[in-house]
């Protein structure tokens, strides 16, 4: 019988941004695994098969959807994993490797999840309400896994870098990105604010402003482009890229401003100064490249919390933090 050696990581949160958060912990687990590689089981909404497979430590990315428990068990059993890491609080996702016969089973261990783990190094109840990143850091500490030295930088595909260079390479610098979308409309800054901010930035820095969003947001992006173009801003709507091409484009950026979204997380993890607009969700500070701007009064109830973040406040924040290089962000540029 062939000796088992493979490692499985279960990351069941569906968002692209969620997978981005997990990268340094996935890398850290891979470093201490028998083969130096891991297989990741996740949701298809993460699009991980498109972009994560270019990461050297990733052996394979498998998708599991709701109501596909028995399919997942078969997939896990067929691959004969030696160890598994359930990096999600769900009891179901701890049960999967148990049912598939994986010998070594690690995980957060919250609630009844620990019934299906072989390791007793689990988080206690006080961690249940903590942020995912805090839970992961605590779990790594329990197992003496040094995750802090692992990079958060996203893997990039050479073909995507080449495509981005051929399509956008001639556009003037700096490259400023506006991320207009989010997983919930309540998390979105008004479109008119993005247009106004673009006009303010254009007075101080000649370059290109990319209006980024999903395909279904193309009309909104084009509207912002039209509004800014009338004021002389060189803007371009980008809503047609595959996720791996979007990451390649962001890797060349000078500044990102946008909603709490996967693009914001990606920009920060590609070493770009990233101004995140937080009016609904708690501000994120896990990356030195993240610069959160929150609404003035977090306790005040309002139907339009994102609208309370003014354009002037965001513009002044960018200027005060000197988030654009001096050669770009100059009064002489107007």
What do you see in this structure?
- The chain is of the alpha/beta class and 334 residues long.
- The chain folds into 2 domains: 6-142, Rossmann fold (3-Layer(aba) Sandwich), CATH 3.40.50.2000; 164-333, Glycogen Phosphorylase B (Rossmann fold), CATH 3.40.50.2000.
- The protein has 11 helices and 11 strands.
- It has helices at residues 16-31, 48-51, 69-79, 91-99, 132-142, 158-168, 191-202, 218-229, 243-250, 262-268, 311-320, and strands at 6-10, 38-42, 58-63, 81-86, 104-107, 175-179, 208-212, 235-238, 255-259, 274-278, 290-294.
- The chain has a 6-stranded parallel sheet, with helices on both faces. Strands 3-2-1-4-5 form a 5-stranded parallel sheet, with helices on both faces.
- β1 (6-10), α1 (16-31) and β2 (38-42) form a beta-alpha-beta unit.
- α7 runs parallel beside α8 (218-229) and α7 (191-202) crosses α11.
- Residues 330-334 have low confidence and may be disordered.
By CATH's scheme, which homologous superfamily of the largest domain applies?
Answer: Glycogen Phosphorylase B
Class per helix and strand makeup: alpha/beta
Q: Report the average pLDDT across residues.
A: 93
Largest sheet: 6 strands, parallel
Q: What is the CATH-assigned architecture of the largest domain? A: 3-Layer(aba) Sandwich
The total count of strands amounts to: 11
The percentage helix is: 25-40%
CATH class of the largest domain: Alpha Beta
Number of helices: 11
- Beta percentage is 15-25%
Low-confidence blocks of residues: 330-334
CATH topology of the largest domain: Rossmann fold
N- to C-terminal distance: 72 Å
Total number of domains: 2
